[in-house]
Design a protein that fits this description.
By secondary structure, this protein is an alpha+beta fold. The protein has 3 helices and 7 strands. The chain has helices spanning 18-27, 55-69, 111-125; strands at 7-12, 31-34, 41-46, 75-81, 89-94, 100-106, 132-135. Strands 2-3-1-4 form a 4-stranded antiparallel sheet, with helices on one face. The protein has a 3-stranded antiparallel sheet with strand order 6-5-7. Strand 5 (89-94) and strand 6 (100-106) form a beta hairpin.
Length: 145
């Protein structure tokens, strides 16, 4: 996916509950990852296929995340859009099970960096690198109101 127009939702909460919260988001089908902003921060991403998402779409993304956060001690801190096309991201999935491995892979990163990331991810999940497949994220369609 070209990340231009993707909506990000920044979540903040206790660093000690980050991994459990990531698991809850994953179970809800939300694509999220640890943020470089700090150990108490998670970022969730959505794409509706539009380079200029509407405020209504952004609100729907935040509401979807907020619902999944109930009981986690994390909360939505901010929402915004990615306006640059500097990188393309794909989901790392287990080729055999289809399960998302909880990571986004920057397909424009140098090949060596990508290979190191995939090797680490494979070790973390006890699979071979060959069993990792990169997929485009599904588009998010908020429920009609």
């Amino acid at each position: 996916m070209n990340v231009r127009g993707a909506v990000y939702v920044v979540l903040r909460g206790p660093a000690g509950k980050r991994d459990r919260t990531l698991a809850a988001l994953k179970a809800a089908g939300i694509f999220a990852e640890r943020s470089v902003r700090g150990p108490e921060t998670i970022e969730a991403f959505f794409h509706g296929g539009d380079e200029r998402p509407s405020p209504r779409f952004m609100d729907a993304c935040a509401a979807h995340v907020a619902k999944a956060l109930i009981g986690t001690d994390f909360a939505v801190a901010e929402t915004g859009t990615i306006s640059t096309a500097a990188a393309s991201r794909r989901l790392a999935c287990n080729r055999r099970t289809g399960e998302w491995l909880g990571a986004f892979i920057d397909t424009e990163a140098p090949e060596r960096a990508r290979a190191e990331t995939l090797a680490h991810l494979a070790r973390e999940h006890g699979i071979d690198v060959a069993d990792i497949e990169l997929r485009d994220p599904p588009e998010f369609r908020p429920p009609a109101s």
